[in-house]
Amino acid sequence: MSLLVSSEIPSTGRCIYDSDMQDVVKYVYNHGHQLASHTWHHWDLTTLSWDQVHDEMWRVEQALQRIVGVTPAVMRPPYGKYNNLVRQVSANRGQTIITWDLDSGDSSGYSVQQSEAQYSSLVNRHPNTCIALNHETKESTVREVIPYAIEQLRNAGYQFATVAECLNMPAYQRVEDAQTPDGSWTCS
Q: What distance in Å separates the CA atoms of residue 19 and residue 173, rounded to the nearest whole number?
């Protein structure tokens, strides 16, 4: 599984540099999940300049380098929106743009039953791979949709993997030692 990181994770309004948020990032990384960029402010990147897109990506890279010592190789643009400029900046930063094959619809207000139907439909189509979009900030997604999806997908013979494993690519551009927090670690 992969966790996409922005400065406020996971959409709680909390700063990634808050000690408990750092603990979340460390926990996810130390348990074999892939960390990837979701930009700093979660803005529509297609409305920004080169420098702004670059800064949105760089700030997340810096945070992940500081907290766990990794530079992500993957970025999912907010709202799945990107254009040629975003492609160029992403390539310049060494990050592959990834989007999803299946949207559970939880961020659009889908009910648990509607989200589960998305997974049932996927299982019926049985594609070779699938990258699913879910939001862990939605309680019903965590408690009901994900357990249902895991059961359905396992019963259909799917194996779970990080995005990097699924696409046979490196998870990180660099892996180094984590840094020690100091006064420069802020979201402002």
A: 25
Specify if 186 maps to a domain: no
Choose between 13 and 116: higher pLDDT. Answer: 116
The sign of the CA dihedral 109, 114, 120, 125 is: negative
Structural domain count of the chain:
1
Question: Which pTM was predicted?
Answer: 0.88
CATH number for the domain spanning 44: value is 3.20.20.370
129-177 per-position pLDDT tens digit: 888 888 876 778 889 999 999 999 999 999 999 999 988 999 999 999 9
Residues in Cβ contact with 145 at an 8 Å cutoff, skipping those fewer than 6 apart: 104, 106, 112, 115, 116, 119, 134, 138
**Greatest alpha-carbon span in the chain:** 52
Sequence-ordered list of residues with C-beta below 8 angstroms from that of 1, at least 6 positions apart, any chain: 33, 34, 160, 162
Among 11-15, 24-28, 86-90, the range with the most confident prediction by mean pLDDT is 86-90
